[in-house]
Amino acid sequence: MKIIWLGHSGFRIEIGDQVLLVDPWLTGNPMFPEDSRAAAIAGATAILVSHGHGDHSADALAISKELDIPVLGIYDLMSFWEASEGAKVIGFNKGGTVRVGDVAVTMVNAVHSSSIGGKDGPVYAGTESGFMIAGEGHTIYFTGDTDVMADMKVFNDLHAPDIGILCAGGHFTMDMKRAAYAAKTFFDFKTVIPCHYRTFPLLEQSAEALKDALAGVDVIEPQVMEAITV
């Protein structure tokens, strides 16, 4: 399995017979080099979108149409995109599991907000979510944007993820301290990858606090377009 950071909360995950793009915000992402776009999306088989905010969803439709692959996400937003954009979508909801080839994707709860831009301001885009992505004998918990939740205990009881991709930049999501608390309190991760940080000065710039708090866990600070092999 290869996990490749696309900057901010975007990832390319090569798992089983799938190449999943998760929240792939490429256009205008200050961390993502424009000349890497072709390599980032090459061979992708599906796109996962955790919620409507532009720093997660802005490129999903364009990539979906370019590669003729489906976008998976919360039913409300997927239905809207299908009706208004003719998008190829798979809409589901929290607790639901969708199989894409050899990989099972379960939508789980998150605590945040979700909207897309409209001419008169933000437009409701369904609710925010995270994903459990299971394949190759591993389960990845991609938090999406969230704070710590007691729900996380249920997630671990049901899915026992060994890899955590945790939002940890603060201000809009958990910061490093809160992400570390979530990891220690609710999970038994072998590998943790922070995200939603370093993108803007407003967000945390280092994961040292996360590393220091998670002794015995392989906390990997990702580098854009550099594969993490698990």
Question: Could you characterize the architecture of this molecule?
Answer:
It comes from Thalassovita aquimarina. This is UPF0173 metal-dependent hydrolase IT775_15445. The chain has 230 residues and is α/β, with parallel strands linked by helices. The chain has one domain (2-221): Ribonuclease Z/Hydroxyacylglutathione hydrolase-like (Metallo-beta-lactamase, Chain A, 4-Layer Sandwich). Helix content is 23%, strand content 31%. The chain contains seven helices and 16 strands. The protein has a seven-stranded mixed sheet with strand order 6-5-4-3-2-1-16, with helices on one face. A seven-stranded mixed sheet has the order 7-8-11-12-13-14-15, with helices on one face. A two-stranded antiparallel ribbon has the order 9-10. Helix 5 links the parallel strand 12 and strand 13 (163-167). It is globular. It starts with a strand and ends with a strand.
Q: What are its keywords?
A:
single chain; 230 residues; alpha/beta; Metallo-beta-lactamase, Chain A; seven-stranded mixed sheet; 7 helices; globular
Can you list the strand order of the major beta sheet? 6-5-4-3-2-1-16
By DSSP (H or I, 4+ residues per run), the number of helices equals 7
CATH A-level architecture: 4-Layer Sandwich
Label the overall shape: globular
Distance between the termini: 5 Å
Main sheet?
A: 7 strands, mixed
Structure summary, number of beta strands:
16
Classify the helix fraction into a percent range: 10-25%
What's the helix-strand series?
A: EEEHEHHEHEEEEEEEHEHEHEE
Task: Label the structural class.
Answer: alpha/beta
Quote the CATH topology: Metallo-beta-lactamase, Chain A
Strand content range: 25-35%
CATH class: Alpha Beta
Whole-number count of domains: 1
Overall mean pLDDT stands at: 97
Cα-atom radius of gyration? 16 Å
